[in-house]
Amino acid sequence: xxxxxxxxxxxxxxxxxxxxxxxxxxxxxxxxxxxxxxxxxxxxxxxxxxxxxxxxxxxxxxxxxxxxxxxxxxxxxxxxxxxxxxxxxxxxxxxxxxxxxxxxxxxxxxxxxxxxxxxxxxxxxxxxxxxxxxxxxxxxxxxxxxxxxxxxxxxxxxxxxxxxxxxxxxxxxxxxxx
Length: 178
Known about the structure:
Blueprint: H1 7-31, H2 37-66, H3 78-109, E1 114-115, E2 119-120, H4 129-164
Antiparallel strand pairs: 1-2
Helix pairs in contact: 1-2, 2-3, 3-4
């Protein structure tokens, strides 16, 4: 078993990491904007990126299933291993559930998702404003939880690098940054 992730795994990780953080920031930014053509444009971009990342997470999952990640360091205690695996599972789950909650919310609020402005995606629910408001709260809460899990993920990687002085962080970095 290799001590490094594959180049494809690293590429998928960093594309999704950067895109998800940008998408999260855009979501928080646009939420409180006054209604305007710019707000509608940002919502469209947010939806397009969300759909693309939703699809990309399945590519990433398929890659991970076919290519086992490097083993965790021997020095990690069973509880640490459980938390590490649980954190990764939670990240994948949230990368699937959050875009679904956004799509459901858009459907319930009566705003169809039209990918790249040309490909209308089917509404998942009938228009229902009250349900749309509940789904908006769910979408926001899931994103706040996602942000917390990402912060924990980054903190754990930094702990491994600076405190434990192992290779957990560096084996996911592109080779020019190691």
